Amino acid sequence: MTLVVIEHAHRTDTGRQRHANEDSYFARAPVFAVADGMGGAQAGEVASRIAAGAFQRSADSQAPPESRLEQIALNANREIHELAQRDSSRAGMGTTLTAAMVQGNEVSLGHVGDSRAYVLRDGQLKRLTKDHSLVEELRRQGRLTEEEAEEHPQRSIITRALGPEPEVNVDTMTFQAKAGDVFLLSSDGLTTMVSDEQIAAILAEAKTLRGAVNRLVDAANANGGRDNITAVAFRVAEVGAEPEEGATLISRTAEQAGMTSERMRRAGDRLRGQGPMPLPHRKRIWLRVALIAAAVAIVLGGMVLLVRQVYFLGTDEDGRVALYRGLPYELPFGVNLYSEQYSIGVQAAGLSPERQEVVTEHELRSEDDATDIVNDIEQREGSAPPVTPAPKPKAGDKKKQQQRAKAPAKQKQQQSPQGN
Question: Is the Cβ–Cβ distance between 126 and 175 less than 8 Å?
């Protein structure tokens, strides 16, 4: 069985109590990652961006997925650490990293820090990673209960991260997936604000993953939004199974038409010259023409059906965000495979780089997914008040500390993710 990613969505948000966003993510099937930076003077943003960008910069490899994820994390750790050594203003900077790679019927994970990976299967949510945090260590030692760990004031102190040390241990694991599984990678800005039970309910109830990640981020903000919030979700499905080699398939339609095994045997005899002579040459030509015409009609019918079922985002003639149905292609003689459904009063040029990319990449989507994005842009951008520059974060503002390196806590800066 081979699984493929059939749907994925992602969103990052500064939250309610931070001035900048130091989360980063990578989302290009079959690889996904979330990085949560820490360090003053925007160093956390730099660290998380290096970690997320390491996946785009990595060379193709035939190594097993776990080995590939570990090597990418080690490369990012070395790059972050060396940069911090050269620049005293970024001393001690670091980032968490939780990454997933889909291959065959498995999903492999690479993990450092307290960002998390979950899987939703049959309505049940399971956490796949273990936090590298002081509170998690105390919980594993039996010195804290689950309930105490969730509310502990030091739950954000992490014991492992990329960057503070020249070497780091990367947890790797492989999970046996099955069709229909939904995987979620998230920073702790989500999991400290939204319970696992709420996460499971939102993922199970949402019609699309785009709608799910939007609801997850909104729930975290509604509960206080104390930190930056990032969620990356993807769903896997099985590639269509092929018949066994040498097998003969007779469809129900063929049987109803009288194509029994005996009649098929006699037809085979005629093809081998053991039965009546085939149709005259002219009739065979017309038969081939008819078959070709039927095949063309089927292909064209399939294209028409596809064009009516897929949607994408773009801009109209005035540069406003617009929803289109069809395929984003133009054929010769001015034939377009798309039609504009409607536009909203939001100029694409005024969007953040991340949202501009979503609008202009012309990714094919379902109607629900596409309209979710348009509605979200309209709600957040169409009626948003004029943006004023945010005050610079204070150097003493602390949220996380890397236990060994005593890195400054998170102050997060929005990033334009690479490879979305």
Answer: no
